[in-house]
Amino acid sequence: MNRNHLIGFAVVFAVLVILAFIAWSLFEIHPGIRKVPPSREARANEYLALDHWLASYGIPVRKESYGNLDTILQAQERHISIQASLFRWTEEAVSHLICWIEDGGHLFLFLDLEYYEDMDFWSDDLPLLMLEEFGIEAGSGTSPQGHRYDPDSPRFSQNISFTIPEESDALTVKDWTGLARLVRVKRGAGSLTVSGRSRFLLSTYIKDEPNARLAWNLFIAPDNTGALGANSRETGWLFIRGTTRVRGIWGSLFRLGNMAVPVVSALVLIVTCFWAVIPGFGLVQGDAERPGKPLRERFLAEGRFLKRYGALGVYRDRYIKEIKRRLLRKEGTCEDEEIHRRLSSFLQRGTSVLPQDICEKNIKYREFPRTIEILRSILERI
């Protein structure tokens, strides 16, 4: 190997070693944290974690965004969860639900109805009438201690609480203030469980131990615990609950910015473009044509150019090529001897120009006009 190559290789290797040592001494590699936003499915379904959790235990889950009496009549599930504001309450529906529970159905009712404190009544009293049939009385959830969440208790809704008779054997779950936030009452072969807004089942909170423990006892617990989730693997759960509307790109733009500005700008741009492209009414006034040079001057200029480089034979070759083409089509031959013979017959008597002179490669400038005149006359006679 060449000595210069060895020296260059050694220098490059030494520089790389020095750079590696500097990087190892001054820089440090540590793992980074990248925030991944929730998927569109998770944002649209706030109970997605609960659905996947139940599915992992082999419990079928079916969801409806709205329900009525027909939904209950057609349901094959024996475990139903109803969000009160998304169900059409009628006296017939209340009567059927009571009979359905007594026949072995398990109902989980979420009371998310509005409570008007100044008027002291609920926005819909039919669900409350059904609760009275089970000995449950719903009231405002305001606590003297104020609104505060205890990390050791499930995340209940703070706008509703329940009261049951002291002699009742109903199961109650209370928060840190001592108010009953969830009540379960058995009736016949079934049971009714009622609570406020189901915050403890949301994907955001169900990962906490108190919420997960309560969800286990409500939906997955085995038979010997006597919980609501008993035998739910056989028929599954029907959830009548709403979905969250997920904003797309246009919704985000409308929410974060003023859409009037880009809309008006787009309209102005469109009108301006059309105004510039579409001509006014009447004749379109084009640009006046510039007078060009006469044809004679163009040919003279081209001839001077070809004369300078000794290429005047280009014109002569075009004539001879056309003569050969016409003779081949008319006589069936285009041999040079035949071309010379025919050229001789077309030449006038007494001329000093021979056929060989016309077809030779080089052509003199003084003989060029006469040669072209002869070829043109021959071409007209064929």
What does the model show?
This protein starts with a helix and ends with a helix. It is of the alpha/beta class. It has helices at residues 3-26, 40-44, 48-56, 69-74, 91-102, 126-133, 209-220, 232-235, 249-256, 260-277, 295-308, 313-330, 336-346, 355-359, 368-381; strands at 61-64, 79-83, 106-110, 115-116, 121-122, 137-140, 160-163, 171-174, 180-187, 190-195, 237-240. Strand 4 (115-116) and strand 5 (121-122) form a beta hairpin. It folds into 2 domains: 40-240, no CATH class; 295-381, no CATH class. Helix 5 (91-102) runs parallel beside helix 6 and helix 12 runs parallel beside helix 15 (368-381).
Short summary:
It is built from 15 helices and 11 strands.
Measured between the Cα atoms of the first and last residue, the distance is 78 Å
Low-confidence segments: 223-230
Instruction: Give a quick account of the main beta sheet: strands, pairing sense, barrel closure.
Output: 7 strands, mixed
**What is the residue-averaged pLDDT?**
78
Which outline best applies?
Answer: elongated
| Secondary-structure-derived class | alpha/beta
Q: Given the structure, what is the number of helices? A: 15
The run of helices and strands is HHHEHEHEEEHEEEEEHHEHHHHHHH
How much helical structure, as a percent, in the residues? 40-55%
Tell me the strand order in the biggest sheet.
1-11-2-3-10-9-8
Domain unit count: 2
| Quantity of strands, as a count | 11
Q: Strand portion, in percent?
A: 5-15%
Radius of gyration: 50 Å
